[in-house]
Amino acid sequence: MENNAKIEIKDLNLSIGKHHILKNINASIPSNKITVILGPSGCGKTTLLKSLNRLTELYPDVKMHGEICLDGQNILNGRHDVTQIRKRMGLLSQRPYPLPMSIYKNVTYGLRISGRKNKLFLQKRVEHYLREVNLWEEVKDRLKEPAGSLSIGQQQRLCLARGLAVDPAIILADEPTSALDPVSSQAIENMFQHLKQRYTIILVTHILRQAKRIADNVIFMYLGEVVEQGPADAVFENPSKEKTKAYLNGVFY
Amino acid sequence: MFLQKLRKGEEKFFRVVMFLSTLTIAMVLLLIIFSVLYKGLPSVSWEMLTQVPKGGFYFGKEGGILNAIIGSIYLSLGATLLAFVVGLPVALYMNVHLIRRQKLVNTIRFFLDLLWGIPSIVYGAFGFSIMIYLGLRVSLLAGIITVALFIIPIMVRSMDEVLKSVPRGLLEASLSLGSTRSEISYIVFFKQCIPGIMTAVLLSFGRAIGDAASILFTAGFTDHIPTSLSQPTATLPLSIFFQLTSPIPEVQERAYASAVVLIAFILIISILSRIFSQRFNKNKIDF
Fold this sequence. Notes:
Chain A is of the alpha/beta class. Chain A has helices at about 45-50, 80-85, 105-115, 120-130, 135-140, 150-165, 180-195, 210-215, 230-235, 240-250; strands spanning about 5-15, 20-30, 35-40, 60-70, 75, 90, 170-175, 200-205, 215-220, 225-230.
């Protein structure tokens, strides 16, 4: 597993003010797999996810130490352009945040800001990525309409398409189904199964059943620490730590 | 049982209080508009709107207030434009670039609120002293700059209140797509907030066109329509002031007629901006 690790997290510590939120995180995330970060609310899952593309830097008084190696390069040191790092990781958040523009422009936004202006090219990309997230048939006649006119489930798929359009290597998903109805949630999960052939997917969730359905690899967190990690079968069937066992048995949430 | 009755009575009492307050406000507003219209409308005439003052205008003779109408438009438009050019970047910078410097942003907000509270005559005096220092005379340009200084805090804080309400998730989503902060500011945040930004601009324009104190020393007053930025200019508020202080009843009536023109202006601008902001509203996401 060490060989094909897409991301290696080494001794990562993060504190906001006096709160020590992530404590000595060591984890590795294999490429082309779905890695689920699992744990009860408030254990630092989302913070860990957002430190991967350095969104945690937006919060006041954040201190981060340690290493996050993406393809062997530490992205936490100042040499790297943070914009380029973020571009390599698409983000899907708890609820969809479509941009205040048309459906079409939402998908092409990332391409346009990086200078792709060719209309034919953009049109092809829009169709391609909207098909990728199974949204094309629903919106092909209303691409000029504002993204806000879509349903929440459609918006979330649009956000996924928009993220894929900038051609990332990794998809960061922060409880992406928590605002969605069961059908839309199912659709997102199915898409992840399909997308993992080409992308490394990291999914944060506190829903145990969802984790069991789609995880290839699990990182179980509790109170800011990684308790256990490894292939999904091993962690779910045969957890080695007491805390993991307790969580899997529903003793605490 | 008793408690229930008490709560019911309380509810009734506060409903009456709120109704009466609303009624009072509405009455005062209607009274102002009505009295201005009552006194001013008979004196509004085509000549008044299309002529500049002729000799003896302020003693009740021929002429109109075109100089003040045009002057006010020049001055307020110029000042609003200048304030917008300076103010929008400030508001965006506070809400996008300084996102993790909340203490600094709150300090900036505090000082802007302070500036908002300073009476406009102080801005006038400040503008005047700067003019003396630079050796400038009263002029349209000096008026524009002074009024812009006076409305910038109003504009920035109103925009800031709107931009502040943009959810952090939208910022994070845009960053994850590889946008720079400036792209987020001028594409995402600006588009999301167009209706609110329009309202802020309108509010500032209303303050600019209605203010007399800040331009008293800086823009001066003249019977001519200014043809360049270096000439002094007349304005509606000062025109009202000069006419109202006249002992001649006819001239006083014209002051109210000028007030009618001023109110009509603000009304037209309000309606236009409503129409425009509705048109630009369609892409706004409701979070």
